[in-house]
Design a protein that fits this description.
single chain, alpha+beta, Glycosyltransferase, three-stranded antiparallel beta sheet, 18 helices, 11 strands, globular, binds alpha-D-glucopyranose, 6-hairpin_glycosidase_sf, hydrolase, glycosidase
Length: 482
Amino acid sequence: MQLNELGETENIENEAWQALENSILYYQGRPVGTLAAYDPSVEALNYDQCFIRDFVSSALIFLIKGRTDIVRNFLEETLKLQPKEKALDAYKPGRGLIPASFKVISSDGEEVLEADFGEHAIARVTPVDSCLWWLILLRAYVVATNDYSLAYQPEFQKGIRLIMDICLANRFDMYPTLLVPDGACMIDRRMGIYGHPLEIQVLFFTALRAARELLVCRGNEEIVEAIDNRLPLLCGHIRQHYWIDINRLNAIYRFKSEEYGKAAVNLFNIYADSLPYYDLDKWLPKKGGYLAGNVGPSQLDTRFFSLGNLMAIVSDLATEKQSQAIMNLIEKRWDDLVGDMPMKICFPALEHEEYRVVTGCDPKNIPWSYHNAGSWPVLMWMLAAAAVKTKRTSLAEKAIEIAQSRLGEDEWPEYYDGKKGRLIGKQARKYQTWTITGYLLAKELIANPAHLPLISFDKLPAEVVSKACELESNSVSPYLSR
Ligand code: GLC
């Protein structure tokens, strides 16, 4: 790098730190979170709130920089917003949920926090991911501070238990995965991800692992047992049924259908004709693969979703071979998945009639825009974390360099549009906090990989792996075994 380039990078970074500082939200004089965006030029809508999922990258940066107070305040205040009683009114949030976002309002001359569980949000979407991210963040706080006392407080133990209660509750569904409505996560608009979307399953797995570490108090034995039962089933299910590589595609392509009973191989009765198998045949590199977007009855969503795949690597849900194969895919299909702005939220876009039917003609989610295969710089920190975990840091370095050349100049847009990600998102906010922190955090993780354990998990305990492997034993892909 030339000297003047170095100076420029420093300027961009300083500007990013300043923008992050400007986004801090104060409540009764204490910092409690960051605003989604601080862009005075457009109507705020709900971007002047602190979103739980958006705050994760801010929080990790604060933890790295030793500003643990903000994260602690955030965890304490959001825990207070969690309903502790059963809702009698079905329109009210259920016990244990963590809101999508919150803001500071004034009531009788006093500041109070107002939560949004999706009841105010566009399309009234449910924030299933919030309680999962909250748990992951609580565990990151413990790792960063080595201070267990916060998580061991009775209110926190109760909060964790309530989250586990909704996640592990009896339900109609008989899969180890979580059944959720459309728009229950980062993609919070209708995008055909209802059912068992990868993003939620990976966050669920990660949150179960976090809860397993944190639930230590007496009286939690039953929940701990339930977690121990669920983890291997969930792990085996995702590794086996979500995995797509050329071997697996071959097997699916020749699947028999309408199999009834215990000996069925095509468990979900997937019809090959529902898959874009010729496109995948061309697109899948020899040594590449990824976890599918969704699996359900006669459903295999073959879209690539970045958050789920990257976090599956970080949380150790993907096996080592699968993790390397996902990174191979990103490397070999760089133009499609990273292009000129890291990185696409999903690939490929829904187009034509499919776009109209699946999104409900959503003008914000037109093909190659926003959630429909737009590019989101926030995903860069997850790419960096996955790259560190798989020892493929050069991929993340390349991505950071690409982003660095544009983000500051473009004033930190929320997302980019286009097949290569060259267009600033049609309705993107500027000074979007998680764009800023996604960039800063990616840089921190690459500069000092010792920060990875904040968010990553060690190898699964041997008994979990062997139980998960039992499920995988009749699989056809060599990537499934470790
Ligand atoms: C959009 C995104 C959502 C994010 C929110 C605030 O709705 O889809 O993931 O939390 O903006 O930035």
